[in-house]
Protein: Para-aminobenzoate synthase, component I
Organism: Imtechella halotolerans K1
Amino acid sequence: MQRTQACFTISNTHVFKHQLLQWAQSFEEVVWLDSNEYQHSYSSYEAVLAVGALTALKTDYFHAFDALKEYRNHTKDWLFGYLSYDLKNDTESLTSSNIDDVEFPDLYFFQPQKLILIKENKVTFSYLPMVDDEIYDDFSAINSLVGMEIKSHPPLTIKKRMDEDTYLQQIAALKSHIYRGDVYEANFCQEFYATEATIDPINTYHKLNDISRPPFASFLKLENKFALSASPERFLKRNGTHVVSQPIKGTARRAENMEEDEGLKEALRTDEKERSENIMIVDLVRNDLSHYASKGSVIVEELCKIYTFEQVHQMISTITASVALEIDSVDLIKSVFPMGSMTGAPKIAAMQLIEKLESTKRGLYSGAIGYFAPNGDFDFNVVIRSILYNAEKQFVSFSVGSAITARSVPEKEYEECLLKAKAMRTVLV
């Protein structure tokens, strides 16, 4: 669908981004994607905002990818939304029967009436014809906004879905499957939650983002459900015939002392257990991408490289491939979903054990938030380090996990989960 575009120069990108997200709160459908000016490869935009649905697709997992493919081919326009982890039940003969208190639909995408893209100090407004007469008024209104009143929410009591003893027992059970050869690696997750919870989503997002500064941050509002994500991980990006995936496996804490911090970073880089976990997932991603990749085009550009973020050091690998232009983007995503970093190897067996041993339905957690461009290009993050909020039910949830292998020490895996949970807990209590 043809859009009307207008480009403006902005003097202070940081201030404008805050004003933009504040302005967006009057809409029922909002997707905000922010790179936080993190210098990394394969970046297309500094930030993107999509608001106001002209059309939308909301569905459960049953034939969800077919519905998304039809929707994308019909609209031939920008689409923003998410893929929940439980779309695994569409790609394989699997089920999801664990408790779900957040209640996000399995898949939700919308065609935004208003799209705003930021790159360096340029902002492009891309509006559908029925609202294109509002571009200049909207730009003026956004610039006129002053700082929001900071609202504090009532103290939340964060509860564990499983206590530490239960967690250790489940890890022991998972390792017994590993010793039997059922799987080599599985990502095991646990949920933390609060009931009767009232939070200010936009203020909570800003606090989480400010202490994390990740390259794949996102704020999602769909009716009365919110995702506040400080994700450091890209799931999958397509640019024409080029595809890139950047799985994370390997985490170390930061230290205030620079010398100690460098020591922690180096220890992660040389940790054989962490490297083996990462390499297993790299092999899985290479295999997944090979389903549609041109022969011989799957390349590991970076193996076990250490990236530093505000809260943690992460071990990240970068895998690229070439695909023919005629390969449908939804088919491509379906062939690699869910992402290897949040499942395990072999993938199907790992997902079966995850469903058996975890206590909650993952839902949007360990799914993906992102967009499709009209030409089929796309970019999606991995929904980790994220707070999910059902405002109607007053329910807040965040989950964390780690990769379990034969070398895993259950107590250390539990400590890693607490480290990953630190940022979310900090902004909620």
The chain has one domain: 4-138+154-428.
